[in-house]
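Board work, copied verbatim: 4-hydroxythreonine-4-phosphate dehydrogenase
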Amino acid sequence: MAMISASEKRILVTLGDPAGIGPEAALRAYMQIDGDGAAVVFVGDAEVLREAAALIGIKPAFQVIDSVSDAIFEKGTLNIIDVGAVKGLSWQKCIPTAIGGWASAQYINRAVELILKGEAAALVTAPISKEALKLGGINFPGHTEMLAELSATNDYAMMLVGGQIRVILVTIHTAIRNVPELITRGRVLGAIRHAASAAYMLGIDTPRIAVAGLNPHAGESGMFGMEEAEEITPAVEAARQEGIPVSGPYPPDTIFYKAYKGEVDIVVCMYHDQGLIPLKMAAFQRSVNITVGLPFIRTSPGHGTAYDIAWRGTASGDSTAEAIKMASLLRIPSGARR
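↓ predict structure ↓
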């Protein structure tokens, strides 16, 4: 599929934590997609991006702008809105720091502000660090929660795509011990609804949505837990009554094989690692995160800041390039602005 042209959709790319691989990955992604028609504008610190460009040996024509409307979408031209968060500061590379966490939050704030003003319809976020955010006094566990608050979104879900496997999560960033009490029919039904919305964004008009159980063998008729019978199955039945094409709950140890074989379009998962382990096993380098429920498109690479390999000139841009391509291909959700 061809990406949407510059005249149809503008995409902002935040640099993530400047201490991590985000700036380098973003530049390598830019090299992959440059000239393909995506209207990309970076949001971050120009001096960080220039240093990353020198590190990997590229010399794009930097176009520092204040507004997306000033961007020049031509091959070889790199548009960046310079937030100036680390300007004049002694910031450190390869470790989580207060400056890095604060700066990454400023990039996100600026990008969302631009989108809500109607200057862009899609956001691609390079990785941030939860530890660095905390050090920087930013009280969010991650991108998803921050974006929801900035856009006044109360109902949202995290979806990840990697090859044939697509997963959407009922619970996101919480300890495993908290998961069972959070598996309610309301939350499961909400995730199924988000799966249907995600299918629309992906252009899947007749989706096959499957729900994974929480317990081994999907509870085995109550032998290994009652969450399936008391919460998950009623949610699946309620979704069917709404006309959503969904089935389950299925044993978690078999449903992902069906997804891998292309027999299922989206798997609704009960907790973070249930969905992300099989997905990253299948497509670690090219997995993409999509936040469903926001009033704009948001994607991100499926990896983290990778401080251990940051600023060595070896980080891959594949996942970030996939995130940009995905943002270009997704249908714009209701309420989004161009």
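The domain at 1-156+293-338 is CATH 3.40.718.10 (Isopropylmalate Dehydrogenase).
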